[in-house]
Amino acid sequence: MNLFDDNYFMKKALQQAETAFEIGEVPVGAVVVVNNRIIGSAHNLTERLRDVTAHAEMQAITAASNFLGGKYLHGCTLYVTLEPCQMCAGALYWSQVSKVVYGAADLERGFSVVGGNLHPKTEILGGVMENEASELLKRFFIQRRNLN
């Protein structure tokens, strides 16, 4: 049994999503992994930074690129709690990340619904810890509706 499997790293992304939840951000978290080592981790910061591009994936890509000292994420896997949007898919395309693992599908804005593409060599795996990721998002939006 491999301790460092997809569930292990998705739990790390979910911890980032919980942090986003706690500060009032849409609870999406992401980590970038290479050789079983997290080299970038982030959560949504769009409200805090007042920046529509401050998605968890974008922040994690930047952190991982800074760690590696280059713009390409060859050999890296991005774990993200929600299917990336078209903007993030574009960034993932250009970073040439080797694999994307996501939790919950985004049936309205996910890259697979709106026609976004990842790099042709990028492996995609969805539905990892989907229930946990979906529940966190549902809890957030129920709470937000109740506050308004």
Write the layout of secondary structure elements.
Elements: H1 6-22, E1 29-34, E2 37-43, H2 46-49, H3 56-68, E3 77-82, H4 86-95, E4 99-104, H5 111-114, E5 123-126, H6 130-147
Helix pairs in contact: 1-6
Task: Please characterize this protein's 3D structure.
Pfam families: dCMP_cyt_deam_1. InterPro entries: APOBEC/CMP_deaminase_Zn-bd (IPR016192), CMP_dCMP_dom (IPR002125), Cytidine_deaminase-like (IPR016193), tRNA_aden_deaminase (IPR028883). Keywords: Hydrolase, Metal-binding, tRNA processing, Zinc. GO terms for molecular function: tRNA-specific adenosine-34 deaminase activity; zinc ion binding. The chain has 148 residues and is α/β, with parallel strands linked by helices. The protein has a single domain, classed as Cytidine Deaminase, domain 2. It contains six helices and five strands, in the order H-E-E-H-H-E-H-E-H-E-H. It has a five-stranded mixed β-sheet with strand order 2-1-3-4-5. Strand 3, helix 4 and strand 4 form a beta-alpha-beta unit. The protein is globular. The model has no long low-confidence stretch (mean pLDDT 95).
